[in-house]
Structures are given as structure tokens and as C-alpha cells.
Amino acid sequence: MATGIRDSMKALTGSRKVRAALEFLQADHGRRIEQMKEIALVFGETGKEALARSPLYHRMIVREGARDCTTDSLGNVSGYVYGAKGKTPVILFEAHLDTVFPEETPLAIREAEGRIYCPGIGDDAGGLALNLSLLRAIRHAELVPVTTLMVAGTACEEGTGNFNGMRKLLDDNPEIAASVSIDGGSNERVCHRGVGTKRTAFTFRGPGGHSWSDYGIPMCLHAMCRAMSAISAIDLPSDPKTTVNVGIISGGDSAGAIAAECGAHVDMRSLGADALNALEKEVFSRVQAAVAMENRHRNKTAETPVTVEALSYSDIPAAQTPEDSVIVQTAVAAGKYLELEADTAQTASTNANIPMSRGIPALTLGYGGTSRGVHSLGESWEPADGYRAAQKALLTLLALAGLEGVTEPLV
Length: 411
Prior knowledge:
Helices cover 34% and strands 24% of the residues.
């Protein structure tokens, strides 16, 4: 670990104001939990954040002292804690506003055996509430960073969102010099390797007909089955880790009918950009080969053969920040002060992928506690010791941005 990082952490943790802020975060943990519940009970479907979640979070960051708060056309909410040396550059800390659950999902809080149950209670109400607690701690201890901090609730992180909220935030704010995302239930998390993701919806169409009298015509559903079977047989590399998943299949009207349309969604992931591109090419090739095979296999002439249409709706780049970089080692040092063992082996697809892919130092820290059942209706969160994640995030941000009269910025 670089001497500058150790010196910065020593100076920060020796500061009376910083110690007051750290103590505040522990005392504030109960309030943070109540805000997690409040956020979780407001629907946040991807693409619909501006209807309810964005206005709620805008009001929240204003109330907690962020300045010049705005909501952009996509639903991103942002505000500032201005630095002593001016408005730029900027260190971003953010969490995403959206959830994987559609608007009509029943939302209710249930508590049992020390756990809080609600769809979205952790992912990412946990991150959003942690950042509100940071704002309160900064105000309580009268901390003035050297470099300006930007707090944000970002839209379009989940599902079909393609991380478009983070893309727009970076496009609109080229002064962002480093980024800390809060996502995932863990005190130890220091995720600096971003999994690349590509998702494609394949729609297969054919003439359709009766399963008996029209038998022999090309069958789109059979073509899809051939294609998905071929995809499942792809030999994938283990280094870099690469995966493929058929997550959704649909189509057909009855067992006695030859379907006229069906579809499948394919999710492709890898830690390597080249491996991900190669996988996508292979998937497309096998789909086309399966359609051609189905059309050749049948013995009846159809006016319309089976066809396939591909719609790619997610393209998240694989990227990473080196483990020996200043930002990663700063988070490790912050955790060490709090007697937290840094988990730098984690890999995930988070908003941090986007700044990392653009050469901006970035990582993802956890919101603390223990999450289970993320992305399921049974999602739950255990809050025990979750305040330590907030303390780690604060120390990391202050070291990166510097603290007036105590330390200079590390980035």
C-alpha cells in the first residue's frame, strides 16, 4: 500500500471531526434503515423512475443538505457537497434508483428473526439510504472536502436499462474524476472487476398451422429449441470466466397448434471483452444455423419459411480498475482501519463498469449487512453491523477527495 494512502488514512482517522462523523454513522443506522423501508415501498421499475422514485430521492438529498440538486430527463437525481478548492473536479458517489420489479408488484415490509423482507429492500434501497446517511454525517461533523463530491441516484441500471443512467451522468459531467458505487449487501465488498453483459431477444416466426394436417411445414418453435440446445452446448472459457444463459422462452397457443411465433432471451457474460464478443458471434451463428436446419428438415413447402429476428438490448462493457490502483487500495485501507477484511475477489456487473470502461477510476462498495434473495419477491436484508459499510464509504470518499485542513486529495 502506498505511503500516501497510509498517511492520508492516519490523518483522517486522527481527526476529531472525522471521528465524530464515524460515530454519527453508527448512531444514524436506525434512521438509515427507516429510509431503506421508505424507498423500498415506492415502486422503481426500470424506465419509470421519474414517476415516483426520482422525485422522492430528489426531496431526500435536498433535505440532507446536498446543493444544486437536479433531476435530468432520464430520471437521474444528483446534488453536490462543494469542495474548498472549487466545483471541479468531482468525486461521484452513487446508487441506482431502479429495481427489477414491475410497477404492479405488491410491496410490503415484513420483519422476522432480525431480517427485513421486501422486494428491493437491499438492491438498491440499501445503497440509496447509505448515501443519505453519508450526507447527514458530513453535515453533522461540518466536514468540508477539498474536491467536490457529487451524490446521485441513477436510473436505468437494472434489466433493459443498459446502465443508461450512469452513461448519461458521465456524458453530462465530464469533470467526474472518480466514482464510488454503492450496491450489494456486504461490509467487506471492494469490487473493482466489472462483468461484461450482452443480452439479445430472438424472435422466431413461421407459417404456423395444425399439428396434424399441416405437419411437415417448418416449425419456428422447433427451430428455437434447436437453437437453444446448440447454445447450451457452446464450450465456454473458464479464464476469463464466461457464461451463457437462456433466461426467458415464450410462444405457442396450444399443444395442438404449430406456433407462428416464439421467442427467447439470451444473456451472455464475461470478464473479458474479447471472450464476450466471441461468444456473441457464436450464439448468433448457432441461431442462424438452427433456423436453416429446420427449414431444410421439413418436407412440406411453406409460403413462408422460419425466420429469426435478433434485438440486442443490453451491451455492458467488461472493465476493471487495477487492484493496485489508488482508489482500490484506499477502500482496502479504509476497511482495514475498521477491521474489515477487504473482499477484492468479487466480480459483478454494476454501474462502475461504465466509468471503468472509460478509464475513470471506479469501484463498487457494499451497503452492509447481509442480503438474501436479491431480484426475487422474497428479498431480505439483515442490518446487523451495516453501519460499518457506511463508515468505510465515508473514509474512502474523504481520502479520495481530501479534507480541508487535514489531507490533500488522492485523486
